[in-house]
Amino acid sequence: MSTTRPEELLAFDREHLWHPYTSMTDPTPVRLVTGARGCEIEVDGRSVVDGMSSWWSAIHGYRHPELDRALGEQAARFSHVMFGGLTHEPAVALGRRLVDITPAALERVFLADSGSVSVEVAMKMVLQYQRGVGRPERTRMLTVLGGYHGDTFDCMSVTDPVGGMHSMWSGLLPEQVFGPRPPRHDAGPDDIAAWSAQLRAVAAEHAHELAGLIVEPLLQGAGGMHPYPAECLAVFREVADEHGLLLVFDEIATGFGRTGHLFVSELVTPDVLCLGKALTGGYLTLAAVLTTDAVARGISASESGVLMHGPTFMGNPLACAVALASIDLLLSGDWLGRVGHVNERLTAGLAPLRDLPGVVDVRTIGAVGVVQLDHPVDVVAATDAALAAGVWLRPFRDLIYTMPPYPIGTEELDRLLGGITEAVKAG
To answer: According to the annotation, is 2 in a ligand binding site?
Structure first.
């Protein structure tokens, strides 16, 4: 146990450690976590409900005995070996499981080391495939406004160029092609048809230079927590097929049950699928890219003959072992019932917030609840108010939202709803 006093830890943190999207010279406050169990974390010595699942990854909560056991047993064997020229049972078993539970056509697996890297790999796959099938001039990606795909450079290039977090890099990033944002989740047939026509027109105009189409299926996450109609997925598939594009689904946020589907790709099969976040149940960083045999063969036909990517920690045994245990835990339980219970409580509990001053929209999908304000959230004030109510939230832009762990109980859900309410009032 550390003997360093909390105030010393926080003082060093403030002076020396960067946090996500935070100024180094004028950082926003951080709180000290000293423990976590179930659906709660210990923040500044107080147990609070985690409304964020540690950025959507800790779907089972914390210190789950089965995941702890998987991690410990693998650590007792070996923690890491290079994946170049070597393999091991955790990677093979995880690859087999991912092939089994994703759409049948997706049978080739690349084990990356983070969500952003998985998107980089997917985009590299798309470009190498086009080179392998004799279309090297196709070097741009088609996507839609409102999306978010990660923080590395190619990922930033397919993230919303105006309203997204990476607009400052305009002019330095690869220039991709953007179609209209999908309509709201409750849009009618006419709105969907109008959106479809616009997207098809953009794709037709640029088809000669397009290599692939990348989207977050059913729910755009960090770009605005924007759910959209499932009918749009078929449009993406048709556009890709019509113009010879590879369709990439970024399910880093939506995979493993978050929207009420194990994978949104069950509805429409992409050519390339990116998974991350909840893959290890929030224990370690790991991502996976799955693709079809046809895509793999196209990549192998490119001039390099191989996929030009190989992270040092690719297929890390610890991460693979805990990922396999997390998937087993998810599928052996009533994950769909739990997600449905969370959705029911969030839908009913957030609805009254529509009447609060400054609230412009309330929406839910699966185990996701969103309150949108008519102004940027005062993050510090909203966070303080939620903590005072026994809840950890991390608002951004004009959104106060939650993605809680699936096993969260009714009492904890009620406390979560109370914390969201207080955050909305303060934010």
So the answer is: no
pLDDT digits (tens, 9 = 90+) for 149-191: 999 999 999 999 887 667 778 788 889 999 999 999 999 999 9
The annotation status of 347 as a binding-site residue, yes or no, is no
425 catalytic? Reply is: no
310 marked ligand binding residue:
yes
Residues 41 and 101 reside in one and the same domain = no
Q: Residue 371's domain is classified under what CATH number?
A: 3.90.1150.10
Whether 3 shows a pLDDT value over 80: the answer reads no
Confirm or deny that 77 is annotated as ligand binding: no
Respond yes or no: is residue 148 known to be catalytic.
yes
Residue 120 is part of which domain span?
Answer: 68-332
Residue 250 annotated as part of some ligand binding site: yes
Structure tokens at 19: 């946090």
- Rounded alpha-carbon distances, angstroms, from residue 359 to 100, 184, 345, 375, 415: 43, 17, 19, 9, 20
What is the DSSP-derived secondary structure letter of residue 351? G
User: CA neighbours within 13 Å on the CB side: how many for 138?
Assistant: 27
Mark which of 302, 332, 362 sits at the end of a domain.
332
* Distance, CA of 318 to CA of 71 (rounded, Å): 6
Give pLDDT, residue 2.
67
Whether residues 281 and 406 fall in one domain:
no
Burial of 2 (0-12, 13-18, 19+ CB in 10 A): exposed
DSSP three-state, residue 306: coil
Could you tell me if 270 and 115 are in contact, meaning their C-beta atoms sit under 8 angstroms apart? no
pLDDT at 161: 87
The single residue of 148, 228, 283, 401 carrying the catalytic annotation is 148
What's the Rg (C-alpha) of the chain? 22
For the segment 374-392, the average pLDDT, to the nearest whole number, is: 97
pLDDT at res. 263: 98
Mean pLDDT in residue range 65-91 = 97
180 marked ligand binding residue: no
- Which residue in 250, 283, 401, 406 is the catalytic one? 250
Q: Domain check: are 149 and 267 in the same one?
A: yes
Annotated catalytic residue: which of 62, 160, 277, 406? 277
Domain boundary among 332, 355, 387: 332
- Do 274 and 260 share a domain, yes or no? yes
Residue 43 pLDDT class (50, 70, 90 cuts): very high
Residue 1 lies in a domain: no
Pair of tokens at residue 413: 């859900």
Based on the domain organization, do 89 and 113 belong to the same domain?
Answer: yes
